[in-house]
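Handout, section B. The chain below has 213 residues.
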Amino acid sequence: MTETAGDGEAASGRHRKKGQRSFLAELPILIIVALAVAIFIKTFFVQAFWIPSGSMIPELQVNDRVMVNKLSYRLSEPDRGDIIVFLSPFATDHSEESVFALIGRTIGESLGVTAAAIPDDLIKRIVGLPGETIEIRNNTLYIDGSALEEPYLPVGVSMDDMPPRTLRSDELFVMGDNRNASSDSRRFGPITTDDVVGRAFIRIWPSDRWGRL
């Protein structure tokens, strides 16, 4: 029997419909896989973070987006001047959070588009390393008795005096560049190396300010 043009078009239409049904059937699986991959990458490798405040001006502006490398300090030690993300001492307790709320928050945090009223993570610069003695006097930061040069500070920054404080072997002293508007280790004390999420290594938004940190 010879197949007519009409028969061929009908068969082609059936194939297209079958392909569409197959794609629609697989779409939920693709979404779940994509979400799982996003969560895996966010948990272990890199994550986008949204800058909600002006505490790191001028290096980081409000609403900037940065990428954070979570493997940095598994391969090397923290260094002075690194800009890091760490768990806030005032972090929200998510223990009672529903599964759907967790999924929504994870997606938003993975893309760096959401932030809690009190952010679970803060971003500051490392100024003091384990074992060092930190002191502030006459508007200058001293490390083990030597004044620290800080070219990243904005003009007009002022700091109250702070008596010498020696860090433990697992502690870091962190401060925002915009010292007049930063809640940092001067307020809540040193953080531990276990609290560090990772090192911010690149600004990805806005596009005209894209660049390494």
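Note. The first helix runs from residue 5 to 44. Compare this with the example in section A.
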